[in-house]
From TrEMBL:
Protein name: T-box domain-containing protein
Residues spanning the signal sequence: none
Pfam families in the record: T-box
GO aspect biological process, one term: heart development
Swiss-Prot/TrEMBL keywords: DNA-binding, Nucleus, Transcription, Transcription regulation
Primary location class: nucleus
InterPro entries in the cross-refs: p53-like_TF_DNA-bd_sf, T-box_DNA-bd, T-box_sf, TF_T-box
């Protein structure tokens, strides 16, 4: 996934163990197309049927609260696909649809103690390839903005 989603946490209990997960959910029920002459995304109709929802467990989970306080958790290994038949655990998205990444921190799975963090500035439209260098530059700026924000729990 580009740009890579990176998060940091504070306010956690140092000795508590936490699992960190990510999923990506549709923002709306629309399909989009990019209008180059207007340099904007336009609604192009109703959304395709939603792809199967999958959770991505960070491969270093579980973390202690102390570990999460000291490091940035990077989701650089997350792989996205538009192949609904994927058998590799990739997150499945429909191209030309808007999505919202979500980060989940789970304190106790048995008791379902968790919090979900949503970064509205991370909403994106899934595409198979970016054709415009300006879009790639914008995504890099978005990543820098996300890293500069701080969510506490």
């Amino acid at each position: 996934m580009f740009p890579t989603l990176r998060v940091s946490f504070n306010g956690l209990r140092p000795d508590q163990r936490y699992a960190v997960l990510m999923d990506i959910v549709p923002v709306d029920n629309k399909r989009y197309r990019y209008a180059y002459h207007r340099s904007s995304w336009l609604v192009a109709g109703k959304a395709d049927p939603p792809a199967p929802c999958r959770l991505y467990l960070h491969p270093d989970s579980p973390f202690t609260g102390e570990q999460l306080r000291k490091q940035v958790v990077s989701f650089e290994k997350v792989k996205l696909t538009n192949n609904e038949m994927d058998k590799h655990g990739h997150l499945v998205l429909n191209s030309m649809h808007k999505y919202q990444p979500r980060i989940h921190i789970v304190k106790n799975l048995e008791q379902e103690l968790y919090k979900t963090f949503v970064y509205p500035e991370a909403i994106f439209t899934a595409v198979t390839a970016y054709q415009n260098q300006l879009v790639s530059h914008l995504l890099l700026l978005l990543l820098i903005f996300i890293l500069s924000t701080n969510k506490e729990w």
